[in-house]
Amino acid sequence: MDTKQVVADFEDWREVVAQAVELLQQGEVVALPTETVYGLAADAFNAEAVAKIFEVKERPSFDPLIVHIGHKRDLDTIAEIPEELDEIVDQLVEAYWPGPLTLVLPKRPEIPDIVTAGLPTVAVRMSSHEVMRAVAKELPIAAPSANRYGRISPTSADAVMEELGGKIPLIVDGGACRDGLESTIIAPEMTDKGPVLRLLRPGPIAREDLRKIAKVIKPRRKKEDHIEAPGQMESHYAPTTPLLLVEKGGSFVPEEGKRYGLLSYRGEGNSSLVDLTDWAEIEMMSPGKGKLAEGGVRLFYCLRKLDAAGLDLIVAESVSETGVGVAIMDRLRRAASATLK
Ligand code: TXA
Ligand code: MG
Q1: Which domains does the chain have, with CATH numbers?
Q2: Which residue, by CA, sits nearest to atom 22 of ligand 1?
Q3: pLDDT tens profile 97-147
Q4: Structure pTM?
Q5: DSSP string for residues in 113-155
């Protein structure tokens, strides 16, 4: 298949959106930009179209998708919000939508089972990227990240082309992703003491911010046959090159004759790892001052570059686990654990 890549810029983005909507209405899959990472989209109410997402990504059918809506009022057409959660859901939607927050709620029966992998709940979000939003205003969109299963999420249209070129008809280029990390996923729940937010995946919206709305709690322990958020499966977000995460206080002993790449947070003068060996490649997540948000934006971009450099090993430096740093370390640990398998 020939994959067309079109730029949605100022003058003609409406035309590009119309082109994407037309393909989606015909049951096709299309790659679209969001503020977090690029998504591989299909009509959320068309089970056959959604099946194509799983096929193209080589994603196992037990891993459910996120539904993207264009208006806050559309939430009621996707989820059946229990009365006791009405208030907390309202608060979250007002505070963070459109934006990188995904809510897991009981699903409406009209949502095809393939979208939710048979779960009684559905994940919903409203993206702040104008292209994804304009498309989702026309029809609700099921969309996982636009990478092959288990690989690094794409944060540019070119990265989508590397992942899925030849397999899909259209990639809409809406620029580099502003957040660069997948959305924060939470499941609001009611307890005797009031509402709590179960944090299923850390992301651009930090735990510290969510805490201002309600108590944040950990995901349930996974049972063998029950996956609450398969995005939490360890071997996710992995480069094909082995990756070693040097945790705080940890060390790395280079071997003679190997090609090593360093993923550094701030780079020279700010990391003892920089002087440790003659690195074949160095990528800095946040050159200079060291800002975690910048690190989040650049993480997947840097990993992708290092992965393409023909290295024996990527050595990644830890960042501090506050704010977006929690999501960065989450993704780095998964990438490292994929190496161990
Ligand atoms: O930022 C994002 O969320 C991006 C963009 C494209 O919107 N999407 C994304 O989708 O990261 P994906 O499929 O790569 O990750 C979504 C995660 C999956 O790991 C899935 O396990 C979890 O959301 N999920 C979906 N539905 C769920 C549900 N009903 N209960 C628990 N987890 C769910
Ligand atoms: Mg993904």
Answers
A1: 4-71+111-173 (3.90.870.10), 243-340 (3.40.50.11030)
A2: 229
A3: 999 999 999 999 999 999 999 999 999 999 999 999 999 999 999 999 999
A4: 0.95
A5: HHHHTT-SEEEEE----HHHHHHHHHS-EE--BSSSTTBPPPS
